[in-house]
Amino acid sequence: MAVASIAKNSQKQEGVGQSLRRALSDEPAVGPLITLLVILGVSWLFIPNFASMRTVTGIINAATVTGVVTIGITMLMIAGEFDLSVGAMLAAGSYLFAFNTINGASPVFAVVLALVIPGLLGTINGLMRVWTGIPSFVVTLGTRYIFRAAVWILAGGALIQTQAELPIYSIFNGRLDILNNLFARANFRTSLLWLLALVVLFEIVLMETRFGNGVFATGGNAGAANAQGVNIKLIRVLAFTLVGVLAGFGGMLDFSLFNSVRVATGDGIELSAIAAAVIGGARLQGGSGSIWGALVGVLLVSTLRTGAVLLGLPADNFEAVVGVCIIGAVVLNKWLRQQR
Amino acid sequence: MDTSNLTSTSSMPLVKMENIAKNFGVVTVLTGVDFHVNPGEIVALLGDNGAGKSTLIKILTGVYTPTSGQIYFEGRPVQVNTPHDAHDLGIETVYQDLALVDLMSISRNFFLGREPMRRVGPINLLDRNKMDLQTRNSLHEIGIEIRSAREKVGKLSGGERQSIAIGRAVHFGAKLLILDEPTSALSVGETRKVLDYTRNAKARGLGVIFITHNVSHIFEVADRYVVIRHGKKAADYAQGQLTQNDIADLITGAREA
């Protein structure tokens, strides 16, 4: 029998252009990254007052809390699921962190509780998703209200704020003076380091672990994953749990920055995170996306927001810019995926 | 005429299903079906839609449990209660739609659920170089050449995808390979390739069940043709005993065995 060959020219090495185009279609973050760089460049040149470290660090600082949440949402979307309840889980984490740190509990205890409780709320989302078979969009639309009510009860409806400058707040969201001393008017904060660390961690989890492979497979073709022995229910529950943990982390960053939390904290972040994930190349139907893309996505939205403010656009018009950006990103990503 | 032993060698069948019956409530789907596959044998399992051939295979792969009857694997009586049981015995099924994840690379698909790991400090990470290399090598061994193990499966043709799924089953030590309508959506050229890989699996001593309702796809390759009609085994002939038209008539019932 002749050796049948899949590729007619299998012996031939790929050309540079070919491998570049393949990288474009294989790495979902590349397209959005190019878009971000173009927008940054244009803004730097043409928007008054944009070209300063103050503006650039402002863009970054406004993106960190949403960024941490978007890491989780991106991973979840790759697994083929949504979570609309992240805002309430973020508020829960923020309250737990605030309450315990202000009342003098050990910082470790405060941090662990602020991660574990939202994580358990995420587990509840995941279990309801796999046990009932109801789409997660509906499940978390329900828990979005339930968790928010739970936060209200936990907080007694009250705002918590503090003037205290505890070291734990500086660890999560303090000034990063090592960098600030290098650039005039820069305001780098430690939250950036946390965001970058989580991006790297979750990029490794997704790309280099068996769990990550299962996440892509579950979102890409759950039936095929199941047929190969991947425990798709476990993958889904774990993904929802990690989203909760990351939302709790976002809540701690948020409180460390503003030193206040109210019942409505984090309201609307679920849509910002989905928007950033989509702009960053995550596929709505699941199976594709990247954590680097999530980072690029939140930075892109934050850049546009800052640009709009500096241009003196009315705040109402900003939302339209995000809308155009989402649709543009999806069109671009679809086109990139079709390249080979 | 009992022809079921004509192609059997003295060695024991790889799998033998004896007097299988399956009822769904009051509806009888299968009655008294005997079916076997020898090592290194390609058996075409033929039948019209609804004849009961997929029910028979789902019993073999643990999706359904039979109402009565016994399954033997390598001579031992076995209970196949879940797809996992089937997997453990060495029964691999390549489904038309449930074979591969299109958005993932060839090597990630190849090792899905069985990824080789490497230790980095205290943690285990995927050994992606090993995944790429082993994928390329083991596909090469059965005659499949790929451009890059990191290419997305979605960019391959239907026949290439089927081939990779077959290659994966062979690599992971399947003893019985079940191909569920693998060629129904393929062009003539692609069908030929898939049949080549099927022959290749046979040459390595695997038993192969090739489910189809299109005789022409499998006519030259199969060692034996088993026809299921109305829940019963309507025919069991070795290659060379029948023409394509004979088999087509047996499937539709225009001819009795």
Give keywords:
heterodimer; A: 340 residues; mainly alpha; ABC transporter involved in vitamin B12 uptake, BtuC; two-stranded antiparallel sheet; 16 helices; 2 strands; 72% helix; 1% strand; B: 257 residues; alpha/beta; Rossmann fold; 2 domains; 6-stranded mixed beta sheet; 4-stranded antiparallel beta sheet; 8 helices; 12 strands; globular
Write the topology of this structure.
The complex is a heterodimer of chains A (340) and B (257).
Chain A (H helix, E strand, L loop, with lengths): L15 H11 L3 H17 L6 H9 L2 H15 L7 H17 L4 H26 L3 H20 L4 E2 L5 H7 L3 H4 L9 H19 L1 H11 L1 H6 L4 H27 L1 E2 L7 H11 L11 H20 L4 H24 L2
Antiparallel strand pairs in A: 1-2
Chain B lengths: L14 E10 L2 E11 L4 E5 L6 H8 L7 E6 L2 E3 L4 H7 L1 E4 L11 H5 L6 E4 L2 E4 L1 H14 L16 H14 L4 E5 L7 H16 L3 E6 L2 H4 L5 E6 L2 E7 L5 H9 L5
Parallel strand pairs in B: 3-10, 3-11, 6-9, 9-10
Antiparallel strand pairs in B: 1-2, 1-4, 4-5, 7-8, 11-12
Descriptive report:
The complex is a heterodimer of chains A (340) and B (257). With 340 residues, chain A is mainly α. Chain A has a single domain (29-338), classed as Orthogonal Bundle (ABC transporter involved in vitamin B12 uptake, BtuC), CATH 1.10.3470. Chain A has helices at residues 16-26, 30-46, 53-61, 64-78, 86-102, 107-132, 136-155, 167-173, 177-180, 190-208, 210-220, 222-227, 232-258, 269-279, 291-310, 315-338, and strands at residues 160-161, 260-261. Chain A has a two-stranded antiparallel ribbon with strand order 1-2. The two termini of chain A are 31 Å apart. Chain B is of the alpha/beta class. Chain B has 2 domains: 1-90 and 175-257, Rossmann fold (3-Layer(aba) Sandwich), CATH 3.40.50; 104-170, no CATH class. In chain B, 30% of the residues lie in helices and 28% in strands. In chain B, the strands form 3 sheets. A 6-stranded mixed sheet of chain B has the order 6-9-10-3-11-12, with helices on both faces. In chain B, strands 2-1-4-5 form a 4-stranded antiparallel sheet, covered by helices on one side. In chain B, strand 11 and strand 12 (232-238) form a beta hairpin. In chain B, helix 5 runs parallel beside helix 6 (188-203). The radius of gyration of chain B is 19 Å and the shape is globular. Chain B starts with 14 loop residues before the first strand and ends in a 5-residue tail after the last helix.
